[in-house]
Amino acid sequence: MNAPAKKLKVATTSLAGCFGCHMSFLDIDERLFTLLDHIEFDRSPLTDIKTCSPDCDIGIIEGGLCNAENVHVLREFRKNCKTLIAIGACAINGGLPAQRNHLPLTVILEEVYHTSPGLANGMVPNDPELPLPLNQVHPIHEVVKVDYFIPGCPPSGDAIWKVLTDLLAGREPQLGHGLMHYD
Amino acid sequence: MTLNETHPEAVAGVVDRIVERWRRDPTCMVQILREVQEACDWISPEAIDCLQTALKVPRTKIEGVAGFYSFFYLKPRGKYRILFSDNVTDRMQGNQALLERLCNTLWIEPGKVSEDGLVSVDRTSCTGMCDQGPGLLVNNRAITRLDAERIDEMADLVRSQTPLDEWPAEWFRVEDNIRQPGILLGLDMPPGDALRAARALAPSDGLAASNMRSWREGLPSGLGGPAALLDAIKRANLRGRGGAGFTTGLKWEACRNAPLKSGQQRIVVCNADEGEPGTFKDRVLLTSYADLVFEGMTVAAYAIGAQRGFLYLRGEYRYLLEPLTAVLERRRRDKLLGADILGVAGADFDIEIHLGAGAYVCGEESALIESLEGKRGTPRNRPPFPVTNGYLDQPTIVNNVETFAAAALIALKGADWYAGIGTQHSAGSKILSVAGDCARPGLYEYPFGVSIRQVLADCGAVATQAVQVSGPSGVCVGPAEFDRIIGFEDIPTAGAFTIFDDSRDMFEVARNYVHFFQHESCGFCTPCRVGTSLLKNLMDKLHNGCGSPYDFAEIEKLNHLLQSMSHCGLGHTACNPVLDTIKKFRPAYEKHMKQQDFAPAFDLDRALAAARQMTGRDDAAAHIVKEENA
Amino acid sequence: MSQTFTLDGQSIPFADGQTILQAATAAGVFIPHLCYHPEFKPHGSCKLCTVKINGRQTASCTMRAIPGMSVESDTEEINAERRALLQMLFVEGNHFCPACEQSGNCQLQATAYRLGMMSPHFDHFFPSRAVDASHPDTLLDFNRCILCSLCVRASRDVDGKNVFALSGRGIRTRLIVNAKSGRLADTDFSPTDKAAEVCPVGVFLKKRRGFVVPIGERRYDKAPIGAAAEEV
Q1: What is the mean pLDDT of residues C104-125?
Q2: How far is the CA of B34 from the CAs of B20, B74, C102, in angstroms?
Q3: Residue C208 contacts B where some CB pair is shorter than 8 Å
Q4: pLDDT band at B6, cuts 50/70/90?
């Protein structure tokens, strides 16, 4: 790849995720240097920048939506990034956190904070600093328009590399056998 | 308190009597389940125990069948099971407010059973009372012309546990509402005349050979020319009145020519599963012209050489069972049915009535046959077609009620007379079930070729915005097309003619129909099972003000998928009301696209309500405000 | 077999009574499918095997081959429709591949890989479906059921038991077992039944035998679905 005149701004975040997809991103290893010829990181755990610049080109979202803060962050990304990519099972179908979806939230909170053994005088935390949980966990495409998806739990570094290089080269991203995984 | 809970041994007795009445025949499963439920209010695990033993079929089969039909309950649904008809016409007549009124009065939620187990209130697909709605079913008995007064009185009757037989008889009165009779509805034929006329038909030239074949197969020779009758049906250019318009003569001939394996016989089935929302003509034909219909079936039996017939009557018309059974009984006494019809030795044909149980898809002929065989009403893979492999794999014709009535008329009055009525491509008459925004809803019979405009004028419709012809699976016609005609060459129809004046929101009309198809999808194939639910959710999303052009594009995409990938006509046509209204009433959709950009289908702030309640928080961070573009 | 039809331009020989899918498989051409199994009568419900003949889509597992017919299968149009069907199946149930023992051996997943399904696209239904852990040797996880009815057919036609059936209708269609209690433990099911073997997804789980083959080394990790058919 030839270095472009202007580097693309890339922002990343993890919502209701485990940062596993971010770890996998780092698995592209030394190709990260090649990538950095083409992109610069904006808001991301890699830079510790806390808010998106208004002119981001690509936003990469790990994790689904389980609480109000997730929704705010996702909206910020959608507003500031031209292209939004959902990365990993949780962003794409809710993943592990979504396995609570068949239970009413009240029942979950009740059990976690009131009735599980070993709790004395438990109460549901009500500190305004804490984001309130949504009644169900949602994949991000159910709340904002998502442009591309990289499936996997996590997707391999190679799969992430393939999608990003496809996009940088202006190709429709494709994952062939071996790179396409939901697990 | 249901019978089951108090008297388990009584259940066994009831089930046994029912099973015995149905010859311990598992192919009569749907009928057996219906009678068990009528006797016990639901189909309890104990009742299934008894059925399993008596019928020698696995429990899975019984539960599989019972679970398919809306009117069968595997859980208690109360002593009074009230189902509001939810066709678009019922909606226009205010059924929603009445349902809420009844629920509020009885302190129950729609879809749930009251805490004392006495009553449940829910919705059901069109019950075929559009001309005298809003309607409902209570324990499968039809009530018409609902209003607030009736609802309040009904709540009292339920609470006082008054037996249904003591409810005001007036409530159960169903009017024919024949506004314009034609060759069928105006006919006053003494029972048997069509059969006698059929018998008198001489075999026409060139058909004698196939007549001989019928004789060899045991067709009673004394009846004369069945082939001549078949010829008459063909020359009359009779086409099916159920909507698809297949040439009746060809169907009958294919069945007649289908080889019989050992022990097989040919079967005549009358499709009275009039489930298309907005259609109610078969209700009237079976109320006041039952002889004509049965005579048509007998004529068909004569033509194809059948000895066994079925009337598959939709469960919503359960109240017609006793009168129809009485008509059959009288016809047997009069030698018009049963053994030695018209006194001709060996001319045997009899008709059995089977009831549906709330499944629109059973109007599809192969699903209907599955249901007749006591199974889930899932449409079969075709070919083979019913004419060669139908009921219990035997050659079977399935025709609409009106088709049989017309066949009797042709036998009576002759092919040439009949072919001369209507248009060149559409012979005879069509009965229209007119309802919706008009002064005189009811039945209108016209020779084929009548214009939409003419019908609207006759029924007193003003400021008409659209007519849904042939129900949700038909076409939606706007004012620019009111000069189009009813006929196979232009707008074919099963009979529904639902009128919307300019006060109606055509998007909401389409949404009602989408809900209908979602409810009635049999679930067999992926595109229809999931696709109709996705479509319903998207239409609801627009209705709830969350829709954007993205969702509109999704709706169009899903419709094309349903159309191309579905297993049967239900899926293929489930998209018709949407595609048609999009084409002709696009502004109605645009009005509902409240969002410019993609928005979620659910209210994000409301999704925090449970957490707010549990934490007692109501600070700013405990809410998610709508996005600015909203 | 002197009769042939063309499939995406390729001439496919067939015998009388063979369906398009059967003839294509015999000729080494893969047509995606889920409810079809060579040992059972075609069912025609999943519609994944849909092909286009004379401009009309039809299920190739139930459609008999006709001499000279021209069939389209591996086209972008049809594959896009198949992808949409897969997406429907994914959102209809609860398919959490990372936590599923069948991942890597699952036909639904492998077919989605092969057809390049990058996301489920639609809004999820997240239905509430309880698992049945009553049986000592087999766990039933209905969250993954795609209603193909292969276990129903296998139990009825091979095992002679009728342990399984579909009940309900429409989107409420569900798999039931042959017991008043509704529990597998109260049926005559055996883990060696054919019914346990034919599931294309991960409804049937052998207890105490988790992750014997590591993720990444399973059947469809090694070769895409259909690759075996194509080696004929």
Answers
A1: 97
A2: 14, 12, 41
A3: no
A4: low
What pLDDT is stored for residue B405 in this prediction? 98
- The answer to whether residue B296 scores a pLDDT higher than 50 is yes
DSSP 8-state assignment for residue B242? S
Cis bond upstream, residue B383 (ω within 30): yes
Strand extents, DSSP E, A88-147: 133-138
For residue B198, give the H/E element and its range. Answer: helix B193-200
Measure the CA angle with vertex C200, ends C194 and C206; round to 5°: 60
Q: Nearest CB to B49: which of C81, C146, C180?
A: C180
Pairwise CA distance, residues C21 & C28, whole Å: 10
pLDDT value of residue A2:
61
Q: Which amino acid is at B423?
A: T
pLDDT at A119: 81
Structure tokens at B342: 């018209």
Buried b (16+ CB within 10 A) or exposed e, A39-55: bebbbbeeeeeeebeee
Q: Per-residue pLDDT for B4 more than 70?
A: no
Q: Work out the number of other CB atoms within 10 angstroms of the CB of residue B392.
A: 15
Return the residue matching tokens 């034929």: B189
pLDDT attached to residue B628:
63
Q: How many secondary structure helices (H) and strands (E) does chain A include?
A: 6, 7
Task: Tell me the count of A-B CB pairs closer than 8 A.
Answer: 58
| Residues of chain C contacting A108 with CB distance shorter than 8 Å | none
B378: closest chain C residue by CA: C169
Q: Which chain C residues are within 8 Å of B520, Cβ to Cβ?
A: 170
Rounded to 5°, the CA angle C227-C58-B564 comes to: 110
C59 band by pLDDT with thresholds 50, 70 and 90: very high
CB B70 within 8 A of CB B85: no
Tokens 């008198």 found at: B200
The count of other CB atoms within 10 Å of the CB of residue B603 is: 15
Q: What digits encode the pLDDT tens for the residues A62-114?
A: 999 999 999 999 999 999 999 999 999 999 999 999 999 999 999 999 999 99
User: CB–CB of C109 and A151 under 8 A?
Assistant: no
Give how far Cα B481 sits from Cα of B246, B450, B493, Å.
Answer: 25, 13, 15
Which positions ≥6 away from B142 have C-beta within 8 Å?
Answer: B127, B129, B135, B136, B172, B174, B316, B317, B318, B319
Total residue length of chain C:
232
Query: Rounded to an integer, what distance in angstroms lies between the CA atom of residue C210 and that of residue C198?
Result: 18
Which of C91, C103, C105, C119 to mutate to probe the A interface, most A CBs <10 Å?
A: C119
Residues facing B429 on adjacent strands: B447
Distance in angstroms (rounded) separating the CA atoms of residues A106 and A115 = 12
Any chains having at least 3 CB pairs less than 8 A from chain B are A, C
Q: How far is C-alpha B365 from the chain's CA centre? A: 12
> What six digits make up the tokens of C16?
């009388």
Which three-class secondary structure string do you get for chain C? CCEEEEECCEEEEECCCCEHHHHHHHCCCCCCCCCCCCCCCCCCCCCCCEEEECCEEEECCCCECCCCCEEECCCHHHHHHHHHHHHHHHHHCCCCHHHCCCCCCCHHHHHHHHCCCCCCCCCCCCCCCCCECCCCCEEECHHHCCCCCHHHHHHHHCCCCCCEEEECCHHHCEEEECCCCCCHHHCCCCCCCHHHCCCCCCCEEECCCCCCCCCCCCHHHHCCCCHHHHCC
Tell me if A143 and B608 make a contact (CB, 8 A cut-off): no
- Return the ∠ at Cα B611 (arms to B610 and B617), rounded to 5°: 115
- d(CA C49, CA C73) in angstroms, rounded, equals 8
Q: What tens digit of pLDDT does each residue of B347-380 get?
A: 899 999 999 999 999 999 999 999 999 999 999 9
List CB contacts (< 8 A) between B601 and chain C: 123
Residue type, B322: E
